[in-house]
Amino acid sequence: METACPVNFEFMNYTIITSQCKGPKFPPKQCCDAFKEFACPYAEDLNDLSNDCSTTMFSYINLYGKYPPGLYASQCKEGKEGLECPALSPSSAADINAATATTTTASSCLWLTVSAAFLVFVKLF
């Protein structure tokens, strides 16, 4: 059973993604770079399968950006472990999105997040 996400994605500023990842072409480099900039500070929570952070975050990304299903899962691939997140200092993570209740420093990958998003959107079809 999933627990509630400790990060409040509802009131986040999604402008970093919506201003750089625009259709109809959705350029992969811009979309993936923007996604990483937004999501990497929360990689630890997003990769935790015991909570619903990944599902919640992608719901809001798609709500605000009106992106096609599976956009990030299909475009954003780096290594076998997924997307690499740079290590962030606590202050820079807080600066990226001050609306969150929790900021994390993480150098972990977002492979679970992108994989989970892909699975969620595959189930829709």
UniProtKB/TrEMBL annotation:
InterPro entries: LLG1-like (IPR058888), LORELEI-like (IPR039307). Residues 7-83 form the GPI-anchored protein LLG1-like domain. It comes from the Eukaryota. PANTHER family: GPI-ANCHORED PROTEIN LLG1, GPI-ANCHORED PROTEIN LLG1-RELATED-RELATED. This is GPI-anchored protein LLG1-like domain-containing protein. It comes from Thlaspi arvense.
